[in-house]
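Appendix C: a fully annotated inverse folding record. The material below is reproduced so that readers can follow the format used throughout the book. The structure is listed first as tokens, followed by the designed sequence.
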């Protein structure tokens, strides 16, 4: 698989119901982004999921006196960073990491572990294993903690997790004050291209300049591409062009045909790329008069062209303009048949349309696009034939 690290961000907020976050630098639409927030209200709290984000886990640890929330989202154009919200005021620490596909594949949550509560003050934390169903997943270990308050003025801090890379941009610590209500931390580590099955992180080690100890919580999130094998898909396209003859007896006008085939994109389940291919066939017969017989043309992406059924046959010697009328009639009938077919892909973004779930009779929803909300036949405008 081809999942890569984009960037991270982190921050702290004091004495608030909410914590405003910021996206990792250079984020792009399609990035799979996770955020973990930790707040210490000193009493049980609940959390409100930001609009458009999906909850991974949330809860409250009465022993440590802190609550946590973790969410993910595949970012879209125009998104703004989420605001984390607790039902009780407290001091926050949060961290965020973004991943992306190097082959422009869709990323999705594969699995998440349960939250491990490390309630004994110390400098290390354990994380439960999650099981990857897809080879090449990326593993994210999200962690947060509350300090014991035995020392003050933490001026530096680091974290290590064997086999995982600490996202140094997604690591923060409340660095001043000698109270457990103010000393807090949050961070994210990542490992790319893990195997299938149970992925067990080792023990993380968080150290500070003042040898502060913490009560930790942590969980693992596995991210996968949406399936497929890179660069193996091919597609063939059969094109039946019709050509109008010139007024010169015995000669057919050269015709230009533009074909836009669809290719199965690398690694994306149900996603299509488009490419433009121009085909210019030329026909001539010695004695044909203004009648173009349709020829079957098979176009295989890769730009290999082969005639289906042999070379185009000569047009009849008689018929003249009546033959041209026949061509137009056949063209019109073929276009009507084409326009009557349901679309296979969304006209807005090219995504394959999916069958709608069971709906009340008469709703009119037969196909839909899961990305932009397009509905067929509700939003469908059938192709319009040119004037001829």
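Designed amino acids, in order:
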């Amino acid at each position: 698989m081809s999942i890569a690290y984009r960037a991270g961000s982190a921050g702290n907020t004091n004495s608030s119901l909410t914590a405003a976050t910021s996206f990792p630098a250079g984020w792009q639409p399609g990035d799979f982004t996770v955020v973990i927030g930790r707040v210490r209200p000193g009493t049980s709290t609940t959390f409100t999921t930001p609009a458009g984000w999906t909850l991974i886990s949330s809860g409250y640890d009465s022993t440590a006196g802190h609550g946590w929330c973790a969410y993910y989202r595949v970012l879209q154009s125009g998104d703004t960073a989420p605001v984390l919200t607790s039902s009780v005021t407290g001091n926050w620490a949060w961290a965020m990491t973004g991943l992306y596909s190097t082959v422009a594949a869709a990323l999705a949550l594969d699995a998440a572990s349960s939250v491990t509560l490390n309630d004994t003050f110390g400098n290390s934390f354990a994380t439960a294993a999650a099981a990857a169903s897809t080879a090449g997943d990326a593993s994210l270990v999200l962690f947060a903690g509350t300090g014991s308050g035995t020392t003050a003025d933490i001026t530096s801090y680091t974290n290590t997790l064997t086999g995982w890379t600490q996202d140094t941009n997604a690591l923060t610590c409340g660095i001043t004050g000698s109270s457990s209500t103010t000393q807090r931390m949050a961070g994210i580590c990542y490992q790319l291209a893990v195997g299938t099955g149970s992925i067990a992180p080792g023990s993380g080690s968080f150290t500070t300049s003042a040898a502060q100890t913490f009560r930790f919580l942590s969980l693992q999130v596995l991210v996968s591409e949406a399936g497929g094998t890179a660069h193996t898909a091919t597609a063939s396209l059969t094109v039946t062009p019709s050509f109008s003859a010139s007024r010169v007896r015995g000669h057919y006008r050269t015709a230009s045909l533009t074909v836009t085939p669809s290719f199965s994109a690398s690694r994306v389940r149900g996603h299509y790329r488009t490419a433009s291919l121009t085909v210019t066939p030329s026909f001539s017969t010695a004695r044909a008069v203004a009648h173009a017989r349709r020829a079957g043309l098979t176009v295989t992406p890769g730009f290999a062209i082969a005639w289906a059924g042999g070379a185009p046959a000569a047009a009849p010697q008689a018929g003249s303009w009546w033959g041209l009328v026949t061509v137009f009639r056949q063209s019109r009938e073929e276009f009507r048949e084409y326009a009557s077919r349901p679309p296979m892909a969304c006209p807005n973004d090219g995504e394959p349309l999916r069958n709608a779930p069971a709906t009340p009779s008469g709703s009119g929803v037969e196909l839909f696009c899961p990305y932009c909300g397009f509905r067929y036949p509700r939003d469908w405008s059938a192709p319009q034939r040119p004037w001829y």
